[in-house]
Amino acid sequence: MLGIKKLYILIIKQFLLLFVGTFFISLFVLMMQFIWQYVEALIGKGLTIDILGQFFWYMALMMVPQALPLAILLSSLITFGNLGESSELTAIKAAGISLMQTLRPLAVIAIAIACGSFYFQNNIGPYSKSKIAQLLISMKQKSPELEIPEGVFYDGIPQCNIYVQKKDLNTGMLYGVMIYKMTESYEDAAIILADSGMLQSTAEKKHLLLTLYSGEWFENMNSSEFGESATIPYRRETFWKKRIVLDFDGDFNLADAQSLSQNAQAKSLNQIREGIDSLNHTYDSIGRAYFNDAKRFTYNIPSMPKADSLRSLADIRSRTYDFDTLYAHLDMEKQRSAVNNALTKVNQHMSELDFKGMLTQDGDYMLRMHKMEALNKFVLSLSCVIFFFIGAPLGAIIRKGGLGVPIIVSVLVFIVFYILDNAGYRMARGGIWSVWFGKSLATAVLAPTAVFFTYKANNDSAVFNLDSYINLGMRILGMRRKRSVMHKEVIINDPDYRHDAEELSRINDEVTAYSHDHNLKSPPNIIKVFFKYQPDNEIERISEELEAVIEDLSNTRDRMIITLLGHYPVVSEKAHTRPFERRWLNILSAILIPLGAFLYIRMWVFRLRLLADLRKIKQTNTKIISRIQKKGFDKSTRHSTL
Questions:
Q1: Which residues pair with 207 in a beta bridge?
Q2: Is-contact 368 262, C-beta < 8 A?
Q3: Ordered DSSP codes for 617-633
Q4: In what helix (H) or strand (E) does residue 498 lie, and over which residues does it extend?
Q5: In the predicted model, is pLDDT for residue 112 greater than 50?
Q6: Do 272 and 374 touch, CB atoms closer than 8 A?
């Protein structure tokens, strides 16, 4: 036990050191990805160091739950990859310690990290997301820092487009100034031309003072003062020096957090539960009001006491109307008026329904977002454990440490997780998929993958053996390799031709009897195949006897017989009898109709192919028997040779 405890300490130290390093690397990568999404809100706004520090701090806190699964995946993969590459994992198994025992302490740590991730998301994460959202809104509302470029129009000042031909960085003077100043509309636009000017900010950073020298001012007069005149007068002013005050808020103002009260990401589980109850109560009352409006519109019931309303509704429902007859008794003008009135009312109520539908869709959207955020806290926490049971077994299988192969594998696994999670999120957010299905899609796919890798690593199975997967695919699709029998240069013992000929003759009789008894041309019996299967090992026995004869005859020196041996097909021994060995799997496949139909057609195809194989075997047997008889091979000719 003391040795095992020391082993646990050694593995835990390696894992924790790698986990800390990979966590900060993962956090940095995720932060860079987030920054690129909002780079326009940061550049050119003149933000102070303390504002940027708050932004990066809350962004780092927000990205912690997403960085934890990736860090666990990468660190566990490198840890067990290093153990496998240095043959330490082999020594551990040789000492009688299984892989599951080796994984035990790190599994406990992974579960503890998952619990910590859930606590972080439920308590610290909502606050950080609320603050980062508040900062982003404030940054977007802040006016940009005043840096007017040369040779292009600058629209960073409200209601102004400024063009500067050249500027002096030392004195701050602007030369060749052209200003398009917009007021209430394009008709009231003003154009200002000046040889030079200077732009300064006021002390409170709420306005800009623009001083222009030697220029002209062209401005359209307000057309409302001159009635409907076709020509609009304008005002022209020539000035030597002119000062203009422009509105410009250059300070940073933190936005009101009250506008983020419906943000589901900024809520804990209790707050999400309360928010869902509040939304359900609000939109249920709106739905009941809409339903009552629809009933009043359908039956045109005026406001009245409840008892009278119910009696009138029952009275209306009991009546029957022949609208075609009533419409036919009207004259042409009244018919046209009735149709127009009906169309007007229908269009009106369709517009009302569209507007009401927009309100209910907003409510459904907010409900879905709250439910998705609640599930997301559990999914991200569970992904820590799943990624551990993917990374550690993969490291034991690949046996490659360092930062090469583990990083490639980790990135591929995380990309699969990100694509599935993002696709499920978008489909659930749009209401196309249910919330639980969309948010659990990635977990439902990766959890069986983790179980598969853990099982394979614990049993030292080859996961990345390409030939095994090719053989499995060929078996499923019914493909097979061609038999190849080569002529031997050195033969120890000659074949027993007489015995082999007798065996081939007997196999011909057995093949003929099997084909006649089982009627392989007809489709298989569904009841016998899926529910009342009787063991059928005859083809397996015949195949074993035939392989023994082929093995003996492969020692011949006769090239004709060698060629004929290559004509024997590789027989599928059980594929034509039933889909699976276990009875309950056969019953389950029959219940699952699409799978059962595929397996049934597959069995029928194998029966027809077996019939063709048996005919080929009979023909080849006959030719080999004839060749043996023709050459007069006899058992007495057998001898040893080198």
A1: 247
A2: no
A3: HHHHHHHHHHHHHHHT-
A4: helix 497-518
A5: yes
A6: yes
